[in-house]
Amino acid sequence: MSYIGNEPPDIGAYGVQSFDGGGTTFTLSKPSTTATVLLFIDGVRQTPVDAYSVSGVTLTTTATTPSGTDNVTVQFLGDVVDFGEPSDDSVSTAKIQDDAVTAAKLANSINTEIAANTAKVTNATHTGDVTGATALTIANDAVDIAMLSATGTASATTFLRGDNAWAAPTSPGDLTPAFMVILEGDDTVSSGGVERINFNVEMYDTDSAYDNTTNYRFTVPSGEGGAYVFFFQTMISDADGGYDIDHLEPKMRVNGTDRWAYTEEMNSSLERKYFAVHGGPIILDLAAADYVDCACYVHTSNGGDLKFLGPGSFSGGTWYGRTYFWGHKLPGVS
C-alpha cells in the first residue's frame, strides 16, 4: 500500500480482555481510566460514564450486564503511565513558573511545619509576612546552646558576644592599690622650710603600699604601674598664736621631686589663725617602685613655728577631716 508522505509508525495492537456477563464489576489486568477503556457488551459499544466507569483496575457498569460467556469485552486504548515524584533537589528554580507558588501555598506549608514542630514554636499575636500564615514565636527553651553554633564555652561566667562567640566579660579593673592616711596628733614645723607631712595613721591600705612609720610615703607595688590619682589636705595653724602666716606652698612629690605645687601668699595683717591648703587632685603616671609623698613650704612673718593639725574635737565627737592623704590606681588606664 502506498502513502503520501511518511509511512505511519507501527504502534501495535491495543489490548483486549473478555469477561463473562451477569455482574456489575470487573477486574482489569492493568490500571486504567474511563477515558482509556472501550466497553462492548454482546458486541455493542457502551457509552463511557453513562454506562460504565473505571478506577484503577476496577470497571463498574451502571446496570447489571447480561449473562453470557465472554460477552463483556474491554479494549484498552493505552497505558496509564505513573511518572512518580521528581527526585530530591531535581526541580530548579527556573523550572517553576513565575507566580506559580501563591501565598496560600506558602501559608499551608508554614502551618504544616508549625503543626509538626509544636515543641519549637507557639502561636503569638505578631503579624506574619505571608497572608494566611499562623503568626508564631519561638517557644520557651526551644533554642538550646548547641543550636547557636557559637564558638567558645558557655557557662555561668560567659556571655554571647556579637560575633557569636562565648567570652568572659573583661573587667575594667578595680581601684586598687588604694590607701587613705591621716595625721594623728599635731606636727610642729619651723618657718622658712619645706616640711614633709608625716601622715601616720592608715584608714585603709589595700596592698600595704603606704609606709606610715618611717618614710611616710606611698610606693607603687610590683606589677601595679599605671595611672594614679592623689589628693591631700593639711590644716595649718600658728603654733604661738601670733596669727602671722604669710606664705604656704603645698607640694606633691614623686621620688623626692616636686610634681605639683600651689602657692598661697597672705597679708599677715589679716591675722588668720587657721589655713586649710590642698594638693590635687592630680593624676600621675607611675612605674613600679615609684613613691609619692606630700610636703609644704611654710613661712611666718615673725619667724614663729607653725603646726600641721591632726584630728580635732567638736560637740559631736572627733573631727578627722583636717590633714589627710589618699590615692588609688585608675582602672583601664595604663
Write a brief caption for the model.
The chain has 334 residues and is mainly β.
Number of helical runs?
1
* C-alpha termini separation: 108 Å
Kindly provide the radius of gyration, computed on alpha-carbon positions and rounded to a whole number of angstroms: 52 Å
SSE string, helix = H, strand = E?
EEEEEEHEEEEEEEEEEEEEEEEEEEE
Number of strands: 26
Proportion of beta-strand residues = 35-45%
Number of domains: 3
CATH architecture of the largest domain: Sandwich
CATH-defined topology of the largest domain: Jelly Rolls
User: What's the CATH first level of the largest domain?
Assistant: Mainly Beta
Give an overview of the whole structure.
- This protein starts with 15 loop residues before the first strand and ends in a 5-residue tail after the last strand.
- The protein is 4% helix and 42% strand.
- The protein has 3 domains: 16-76, no CATH class; 107-161, no CATH class; 178-329, Jelly Rolls.
- The longest helix is centred in the N-terminal third of the chain and has 14 residues, at 103-116.
- Strands 11, 12, 14, 17, 21, 23 and 26 form a 7-stranded antiparallel β-sheet that branches. Strands 13, 15, 16, 18, 19, 20 and 22 form a 7-stranded antiparallel β-sheet that branches.
- Strand 24 (312-314) and strand 25 form a beta hairpin.
- The protein has 334 residues and is mainly beta.
